[in-house]
Structures are given as C-alpha cells and as structure tokens.
Amino acid sequence: MANYPEFQVAPMREELVQAGFSQLMSPGEVDRALARPGTTLLVVNSVCGCAAAGARPGVIQALRAKGLRFDHLVTVFAGMETEATQQARQYFEGAAPSSPQVAIFRDGRLVHLMGRTAFLERTPDAIAEELAAAVQAIGLSA
Questions:
Q1: What is the DSSP-derived secondary structure letter of residue 116?
Q2: Rounded Cα–Cα distance for residues 54 and 63 (Å)
Q3: Binning pLDDT at 50, 70 and 90, where does residue 50 land?
Q4: SS3 assignment, position 68
C-alpha cells in the first residue's frame, strides 16, 4: 500500500529513471534483479529531504561526473512499493532499514551499503566522492 499520492512521488521516480534506473515494483522483480550476474547499484528512493538534496543528486553525479559504471541500475521506492522495498532490504545483511539507502552488489552479493547517515547534511559532491571511493575500494572499475 502506498503512503503518498503517486503524483507527488512521480518527479522523484523520474529523476532516477532519467538517469537509467529501472524501477522494481514487486518482491519477485527485486529477486530477479539482484540475482543477475555483474554489478548492480540499487537505490532505495524516498521522499525525505536527504534523498532530494543529497542521495539522488549524489548518485546521479557519481554516474555522470565520476564515470562510475554498473551493469544494472535499479531502484525501489520506500513508502510506495512496500513489499519490494522490504524484499530489497532482506539483501542488506542485517543492516537497519533506512531511507534512502544505496547498495552495491556484485554477482548477487552485497559489497557496499550506504544508509541514511551517509546522506544527511552532505552535498551531492561529497556523496558522489564517497560512492566513487567505495567502488575503488571494492575493486570495481570506474
């Protein structure tokens, strides 16, 4: 069940879709997406201010300005597709749920997770730098 009217979240969805992300709307879609080989960047999108001010712009900047490349870009929307979001968080290896969240998977295995505190009061530049550093630290090519 959705917590927000679709017309309110549509621009927030579109921001990631325009950047190349596919929306995962059901638990089955989440499972299929995270089982694919290669690298996957998963964004738990949100209506909160830190998603709007930092997470979405920071992730997009990391992809565009920092040249980060992933085989798959996917997103779930907290507060909208509740079951899909809950399923995605099952892959976060016991981390507390937060919104937003950004996870990197390699061959279906979680290799990096950024929670809400990584986005609070941080600029998109700082978030893009942190994501780029994480990609380098885990040995993914930019």
A1: G
A2: 14
A3: confident
A4: coil
Write the single-letter amino acid at 120: L
Buried b (16+ CB within 10 A) or exposed e, 62-87: bbeebebebebbbbbbbbbbeebbeb
Instruction: Assign domain 6-134 to a CATH class.
Output: alpha beta
Task: Give the predicted TM-score (pTM) of the model.
Answer: 0.94
> How many residues are listed for the chain in this entry?
142
- The CA-based diameter of the chain, rounded to the nearest angstrom, is 40
Kindly state the percentage of the chain with pLDDT values over 70: 97
User: Which of 128, 125, 95 is CA-nearest to residue 110?
Assistant: 95
CA distances, 36 to each of 107, 119, 123 (Å): 6, 27, 31
- Take residue 23 and report the two structure tokens written for it: 């929306």
Catalytic residues: 48, 50
Q: Are 9 and 65 in contact (CB under 8 A)?
A: no
Amino acid type, 11: P
Q: Measure CA 130 to chain center.
A: 14
